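Hello again,

I reread your note about wanting to compare the complex against the isolated chains. To keep things tidy I'm splitting this into two emails, and this first one only covers the full assembly. Below are the input lines as submitted, including protein chains and any nucleic acid or small-molecule components. They are followed by the predicted structure of everything together. The single-chain runs will come separately.
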Amino acid sequence: MTEKRLFVHIVLISMLAMLTFFGCAGQQPTDVKSPAEIAEEEAAERARVEAERRIQAEEESRRKQAEIQRQRQIEEQQRRIAQEEAARRERTRREQEEIESRERFVETDIYFDYNESTLRWDSQEELKIKSEWMRSHPDVDIIIEGHCDERGSSAYNIALGERRAETAKNFIVDLGVEPNRIETVSFGEERPLDPRSSEEAWSKNRRAHFVIK
Amino acid sequence: MRMADLKTKFVSSIVVIFLILSVSVIPANAQRVIDYIDISNPFLRKIPIAIPVFKYTPENSNTESLSKEVTLLLSQTLEFTGFFKMFNEKAFLEDLQKTGISGSAINFKNWTGIGAELLVTGGLQVQNKLIIAELRLFDTFSGRLLVGKKYKGWHDDKRKIIRRFCNEIVEKLTGNKGFFDSQIAFVSNQTGHKEIFTCDFDGFNVKQITRNKSINLSPAWSHDKEWIAYTSYTRNKPDLYIRHMVGRKRGVFVAFKGHNITPSWHPNRLELAAALSKIGNSEIYLLTGSGKIIKRFTYDWGIDVSPSWSPDGKKIAFVSNRSGNAHIYIKEVESGDIKRLTYEGKYNVSPSWSPKGDRIAFCGRDNANTFDIYVMNVNGSRKMRLTKNAKNNESPTWSPDGNLIAFSSTRFGKNQIFVMTSYGTDQRLLLSLPGEQFEPSWSR
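Full-complex prediction:
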């Protein structure tokens, strides 16, 4: 620095000497800058550099800001997608549950003892589930079918099957389901689930079956 | 008088639709012969009856085979009643073709000698498309002619002719009309669906009546055989359908809410009792032939089904579980009095009141859980079991003379229709059809 300043001084002095020499000898050169001018230029130069740096910094900051913004947007979007996904999953789960509960309602029969139309405890439990389902689906009307095993008079079995269907209906009605939503029909021994002639088949065939209208 | 009748009709019969005419050739003894068949139990001792091959004219192989066919038909028709013991024709010492058929031509010692107490002789004359049958029933010990008839008809009428003569024989020997014009309605699933069918008393001439591919059950004949009522699921629930059998009168649906089942026609009016559950519980009602309710018969919280009329129309037997189990009751229509008839077991159903009025057949379940046919007096006494150790036997129905009972049995594996005497003897298969047959109902 001192060297640079020394060098500057030398240059300045030598220039002054030349100016006095040639100035005396001829015309004086016009492009020679005064120190004030140089200082001014230097200041301007510094200001320019300074400005450039500032602009750069500002640009940098803006870029960063945009980047953050973009990141945020992506995150936001991902979150929304995830949310939608979750909602959709929840919806399908509920739909699935709905289908399953409906299927269960239709597919789960209640069973009776031989030549009986009274409700066994397991049949009562199942009817409670069915009545709850009916209460949560107030727009659904149903038919209860009464069935018997093959033994005995087919005519008597029609009456017995009807009694089974009516007993099931009355139980559901007592649990708060409107009676006009439930129709009953007896098929007697005419529509066995299992056509074989065995205890196992008979116990499956003595049933009330639920049909959604 | 009747001979003259015959001649005029014989001439006109060529043009008019041919009717079978019958005429007594010789006035038979007017006195009813009840010694032959003990009507209180006609099956204790079967009467040996000889039926040699009918004499035939002209003498050729066609008339000979026709004669053999008609003779066999007569033999089978009489055997169906359970009253008679048949002979192997090899035992016969006389040949009608040689001796002739009149009493004077017959050496009765040749028939009493082989043990025959009754003898049927017949002569068959074939004239183009006509057949003339002269048929006689003799008492072999006295040589007396009991029945003598002459019939004319087309070849196709031979079954009708034989049945008509058998009716004469049975009426002569028992004092009751024969049932050889009666029919049996039943349920068969041979098409894959339970449909209503009918056949003649002997299982001949099977006809499918319903073709709705639904479930059809419990056929019942009106007293005049013009109508059949049955349960049908054509509208997806058990309703009654009343159908005209002889003409094309419009049928009627009885479709009250709930079930409409077990029709039973009044014995001499076009009215029927049936079980309806329109009030939410199965009760028995009286309906008109067009399905309108006349009155309600039963008032009870239990199941009331399967009415069956007494032949005088004054009482109905029915099934009720008012005691907790299914039992048979009787209701007097006028007074409304109800009496319980069965106390044994836990399941007695399908009562059928005999046309003679004194007995009720029903289906009961024993301790081994098999179903069998029983008969009892109308006060519940003298209960008799008619089927045993033959799997399940259900749905008894009486022949019009009250001597036979048709029923369904699984003794050969599947449900089929069988016939037996009212004492449980002579049990035999009535129908060999594909599928299963149920719920026979014998017309009057």
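For quick reference: The longest strand of chain A covers residues 182-188.

B.
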